[in-house]
Write a structure and sequence with these properties.
The structure is a single chain. The chain has 430 residues and is an alpha/beta fold. The chain contains 21 helices and 15 strands. It has helices spanning 3-9, 20-26, 47-58, 89-103, 123-126, 131-137, 144-148, 151-160, 167-170, 172-187, 199-213, 250-258, 262-271, 277-289, 295-308, 311-325, 330-335, 338-344, 355-359, 364-371, 378-386, and strands spanning 15-16, 30-35, 62-67, 118-121, 189-195, 218-222, 235-236, 239-240, 350-353, 362-363, 390-392, 395-396, 403-404, 414-419, 423-429. Strand 7 (235-236) and strand 8 form a beta hairpin. Helix 10 (172-187) crosses helix 11 (199-213), helix 12 packs across helix 16 and helix 13 (262-271) runs parallel beside helix 15. It is elongated and about 85 Å long.
């Protein structure tokens, strides 16, 4: 497979140095991409870069995932209007281990293949580098004029940030440039990849290599991913969509991809899956023929959820979706863990009721009128029960005198009442 051709049809090439494609056609190339370790999980904003590394390895080249332990302690001004928080070494090491575990779902770190992936951390070569050594080895090769001309620096200096640009952040491009030099000298790394906002930092590295030892290296960046409406990709009202289930449940993760617009689905399926061009073209044609069936969103959500989580998690997410939108059973509802249950019914009216009253046994009709405002009156609720329009935990209520006890509670805490087909209410026993 031709790496540049593969990325190009997927819409994943923004800028590329001349000669990059020729180098990749000639030999197995070692290339790296930097990942910021400021959290112990990646989020979907990192996924485009991770997919670039995945395609790079699939095309026979050797990927290095660089965790920026040293640069993460400083913060990159690119695209930021405020300086970042600085992390200590213990936190960075913990984050690195968690990130490697996530990356291993995308990259082969373990085999004996010559192009097996490696994880490197720039803290390892920066921690004993004194300021004097850095000034002599790196600083003398790059002029301040060169550094000042970078867009990321100019934007911060021209008033986009309240506090200007600290010296620490100003030196960031030199630190990232030194990473490229170090990897070039120690691992024969000739290519750096990243988001288009990194172009300035990447070219500083290429310039540093040229000025220190005359070496020629190359660069490729991908566009920053946006939504069709111009909004920021991956940001929701509740924050980032994380790859770690502790922060974003597989159900919520699956729902994010399932709910993207048609235009975004056609774009994202190329970027975030490894499906072939033929498969994707067929799905796009299917979508155009029957957009209401949403084949693109369904396949996108399936592929990404399985890749990041597992097939079991995908199946569970589909089943959980059916609880709200389909004709699923009480058995499916009882299988949900508490976090997924709350995600599925996030946004439905919730009422707190007394656990003690339920423990002693309480009539459903009293519970849903006097204790929780599910029905305006007992008369209306009786009528709806008699016509088969009330369910508790996905089971139809046949008896108007039904008594609820703690045995009816899901996860020992929740009671799901359904009025008609679409109206859900979650009662929480406290």
């Amino acid at each position: 497979m031709n790496f540049v051709e593969e990325l190009t049809w997927r819409g994943m090439v923004h800028t590329m140095m001349p000669g990059t494609e020729e180098l990749l056609a000639k030999e197995m190339v070692t290339g790296y991409l930097g990942i910021d370790p400021t959290a112990d999980s990646l989020h979907i904003g990192h996924l485009c870069g991770v997919m670039i590394l995945k395609h790079f390895q699939r095309c026979g080249h050797k990927p290095l995932a660089l965790v920026g332990g040293a640069t993460g302690m400083i913060g990159d001004p690119s695209g930021k209007s405020q300086e970042r928080n600085l992390l200590d070494e213990e936190t960075l090491r913990h984050n690195q281990e968690c990130i490697k575990k996530q990356l291993s779902k995308f990259l082969d770190f373990e085999s004996d293949a010559p192009n097996k992936a490696e994880l490197v951390n720039n803290y390892d070569w920066m921690k004993d580098f004194t300021f004097l050594d850095f000034a002599r080895t790196v600083g003398k090769h790059i002029t301040v004029n060169y550094m000042m001309a970078k867009d990321s620096v100019q934007k911060r200096l021209n008033g986009e940030a309240r506090d200007g640009l600290s010296f620490t952040e100003f030196t960031y491009q030199l630190l990232q440039g030194y990473d490229f030099l170090h990897l070039y000298e120690t691992k024969n790394c000739k290519l750096q990849m990243g988001g288009s906002d990194q172009w300035g930092n990447i070219t500083t590295g290429a310039e540093l290599i040229r000025r220190t030892n005359g070496g020629e290296v190359f660069a490729l960046t991908c566009p920053l991913i946006t939504k069709a409406d111009g909004g920021k990709f991956g940001k929701t009202e509740s924050g980032n969509i994380w790859l770690d289930r502790r922060y974003t449940s597989p159900y919520k993760f699956y729902q994010f991809w399932l709910n993207v617009s048609d235009a975004d689905a056609a774009k994202y399926i190329k970027i975030f899956t490894a499906l072939s061009k033929e498969e994707i073209d067929a799905l796009i044609a299917e979508q155009e023929a029957a957009p209401h069936l949403r084949p693109l969103q369904k396949r996108l959500a399936k592929e990404v959820t399985i890749m990041v989580h597992s097939e079991e998690d995908y199946d569970a997410a589909v089943e959980a979706s059916n609880i709200l939108f389909g004709n699923s059973t009480s058995d499916a509802l009882k299988k949900l863990d508490e976090a997924t249950l709350l995600d599925v019914f996030n946004g439905v009216p919730q009422f707190e009721v007394s656990r003690d009253e339920i423990a002693g046994g309480v009539k459903l009709i009293d519970l849903c009128t006097e204790k929780a405002n599910v029905f305006p009156s007992k008369g209306e609720m009786r009528k709806l029960i008699q016509s088969g329009g009330v369910s508790v935990n996905k089971e139809k209520v046949a008896d108007t005198d039904m008594v609820v006890t703690c045995d009816n509670l899901l996860d020992g805490k929740y009671l799901l009442v359904q009025r008609g087909k679409k109206n859900y209410y979650l009662l929480i026993a406290k």
